[in-house]
Amino acid sequence: MSDVFYNFTESNEGVYGPAVAVILGLEMVAGLFANAVVLCITLMQRKSLSQPSTIFFTSLTAAHLLMVLLYLPVSVIAIGAEEWIFGSNFEEKKITCSISAFVFWYSVLLMTINLAVISFDRFLFIVKPHFYKQFMRPTVALILTIAVWILSAALNSTPLYGLGAYQYGPSYGSCIPTWRNVPGYLSFMAAIFLIVLAFIIVTSLWTFCFTRKFMHEQEPSQQSNVYQSKERRLFGIFGAMLIVYGVCFLPSVITGIMTIFVILPGQVYAMDMILFQLITSGSPLVQSYFRPDIKERLTFIYKRSLQMMKNIFYSRKKNNLSQDEQLS
Predict the structure, then answer these.
(1) Which residues pair with 177 in a beta bridge?
(2) Structural domains in the chain?
(3) Pairing, β 166-169 against β 174-177
């Protein structure tokens, strides 16, 4: 590791750290609120937790909360200060930086592998519905979810054994995994993401081929799973989720590949961070729109709040009229 890379101060020219920190801070608040609402509504409805798909989406929500609760607050402070301030000496800063980078990459791996599991769950639901009812039970879904969290932690621990490194990125203003001069770590992570991406593509295309048959066999009123919308369009929640992740994640992937060969301007890294963190609020919004349990509860809360506001308005209006009558 070079001293230039590990001097814990930003080297961006033309990027105002506090401004980037404010934007990321707003994204952090939005992500925290959106994911907390989705998680709370899910936990309040025990019936929805009996569906495997709900368990998988809850795991995805937990990964977002891990990002906004443990990684973003520290990064926002560091980017605003334009240096890594957590630690009184070099060794302490190195340790806190490594922990922060571990949490960040752990969250990224969790999101990615959870998407693959959701893709598989959707594939079974549409392509093999009878097998899905027999195999995909809540206990199986819970075991798969725990396995995803353990596997992500194991894959993310390789820098502890000498494969890869977590370091302070002066171009990012926060702590991240480093790819430069670590070809083994780059190849290892690239292989993981290519395998996951290939799995998602294969299961999604396979599912698409059976979509028309599935829609023809289902009753219009049947709402047995989150993957089936009221309009019986199976693009639904998973397709919208892929769009959100693709738009937010793809620029960072392109930048990461280019960074292997060249150092890009600081503005590029800042935009990558801002766009990537939109995932934490975009994903729960997709869930809120497509998941019947979340949408129905939010609609109920909205109507109840609107009714309470109307009652308060009419009550005050009635009191004002009574006071006017007394005065007259």
Answers:
(1) 166
(2) 17-309 (1.20.1070.10)
(3) antiparallel
181-203 pLDDT per residue, tens: 677 888 899 899 999 999 999 99
Give the 3-state secondary structure percentages of the chain, helix then strand then coil, rounded to 5: 75, 5, 20
Contact 293, 214 (CB under 8 A): no
180: number of Cβ within 10 Å: 15
Which stretch of 42-46, 134-138, 142-146 has the lowest confidence by average pLDDT? 42-46
Whole-model pTM: value is 0.85
3-state DSSP call for residue 51? Answer: coil
Cα separation, 319 vs 324, in Å, equals 9
Closest C-alpha among 204, 248, 247 to residue 227: 204
Most confident segment among 134-138, 170-174, 296-300: 134-138
Q: Are 137 and 99 in contact (CB under 8 A)?
A: no
